[in-house]
Amino acid sequence: MAEFTLELNDDQKQVKEWLHGFAADVIRPAAAEWDEREETPWPVIQEAAKIGIYSLDFYAQQFFDPTGLGIPMVMEELFWGDAGIGLSIVGTGLAAVGVLANGTEEQIGTWIPQMYGDADDVKVAAFCSSEPDAGSDVASMRTRAVYDEAKDEWVLNGTKTWATNGGIANVHVVVAVVDPDIGSKGHASFIVPPNTPGLSQGQKFKKHGIRASHTAEVVLEDVRVPGHCLLGGKEKLDERLARARERAKAGGERVKNAAMATFEASRPAVGAMAVGTARAAYEVALDYAKTRSQFGRPIIDNQGIAFQLADMRTRVDAARLLVWRASWMATTGKPFTSAEGSMSKLYASEAARDVTAQAIQILGGNGYTREYPVERMHRDAAIYTIFEGTSEIQRLVIARTLSGMPIR
Ligand SMILES: Cc1cc2nc3c(=O)[nH]c(=O)nc-3n(C[C@H](O)[C@H](O)[C@H](O)COP(=O)(O)OP(=O)(O)OC[C@H]3O[C@@H](n4cnc5c(N)ncnc54)[C@H](O)[C@@H]3O)c2cc1C
């Protein structure tokens, strides 16, 4: 088991440098354009695919890095380049992790490659859980999956919302209710293969930030998928449902939800995205403060500015430490006894929101315009306290874990 270390090994340093080069030379120069266009930056994804940054192999390598630092390093560098383009590149990973976490070996081997396509024909994937009435409250999900035994098919009906890559994905992973009597324990995940009739894109959202990333509703009308598209398979589902029904009958003993454990492990990755955006804004502000002169001296000569920069950098580094700790814990199988995954996401996302706001302040009027990138970074940063569990939900998870009380 890898010891926790703050030092990247030689391989990791090389990968980091390579990613940073791509972020600086390809992503950053394209960021303003795709933010304005509010469209998926297919040419940038293609460039990433050509050099191996957008590929199953690369993410698998980083995902299974025994130190746990591979994925946070990738996220930080790509999102340092730009958050909207960064999410367009890594958004497929959400769906891939859904299959990796719950699928059989055969499902993993069949579907994950189709999520990425190849350098000549890149594809994306979408993970569809949220619904108009089921955001933080996942148990309120209404999308139904009903088994048609005669045909060995599942029939899906419902509306998903806020799906990253929803409707433009080659493969959609859809979470649906299979037993409405046992809340979130009665949910299961399904693959919806390419071109399946009945799946369509609803509204595409016009957003405040990460505008290069496509976010849309996904409408499911009598979508029929073969039995083998149920992630994990029917036998495993039946066993899990039987156990959950028994527990519910026995008085609803609180059991650790597997989905919650998965979230704890995936939240540091979102924290790392936030670290990337925060670091980018801090660097722009530091450079600006050194070169902008007022009252005959660089503005960084004033403690009022220099101390802000000191605080900003301290928060970026503290956020990274929490993210790396949680990622190492997830990879080495350490139990999250204090909800360390949620802690890292909570702290990093609020740091990104605040650091990007401070960066605007340090750039003054220029910071408020689209001539400089910090305005975009601040709009982008607002997502981190919302998706993959809002800040309030992270605090709830941490408080419940620490206290053992069902805090509401
Ligand atoms: C750009 C973007 C991309 C997304 N991508 C995906 C995706 O790919 N797949 C997917 O499934 N979903 C995705 N989401 C959905 C995202 O995860 C949800 O928006 C998020 O979980 C919050 O749900 P909600 O928007 O319904 O807010 P609500 O749950 O309605 O929350 C509204 C407010 O109430 C607060 N609140 C709610 N319950 C409590 C409570 N018990 N205690 C205290 N405060 C509470 C929340 O913190 C928040 O401040 C995405 C969202 C966005 C905006």
UniProtKB/TrEMBL annotation:
Keywords: FAD, Flavoprotein, Oxidoreductase
Similarity comment text for this entry: Belongs to the acyl-CoA dehydrogenase family.
PANTHER family: ACYL-COA DEHYDROGENASE, ISOVALERYL-COA DEHYDROGENASE, MITOCHONDRIAL-RELATED
Domain Acyl-CoA dehydrogenase/oxidase N-terminal: 10-115
Organism from which the protein derives: Streptomyces californicus
Residue span, Acyl-CoA oxidase/dehydrogenase middle domain: 126-223
Domain Acyl-CoA dehydrogenase/oxidase C-terminal: 258-402
Segments forming a coiled coil: none
InterPro entries: Acyl-CoA_DH_CS, Acyl-CoA_Oxase/DH_mid-dom, Acyl-CoA_Oxase/DH_mid-dom_sf, AcylCo_DH-like_C, AcylCo_DH/oxidase_C, AcylCoA_DH/ox_N, AcylCoA_DH/ox_N_sf, AcylCoA_DH/oxidase_NM_dom_sf
Name of protein: Acyl-CoA dehydrogenase family protein
Needed co-factor(s): FAD
Superkingdom of origin: Bacteria
Annotated Gene3D superfamilies: Acyl-CoA dehydrogenase/oxidase, N-terminal domain, Butyryl-CoA Dehydrogenase, subunit A, domain 2, Butyryl-CoA Dehydrogenase, subunit A, domain 3
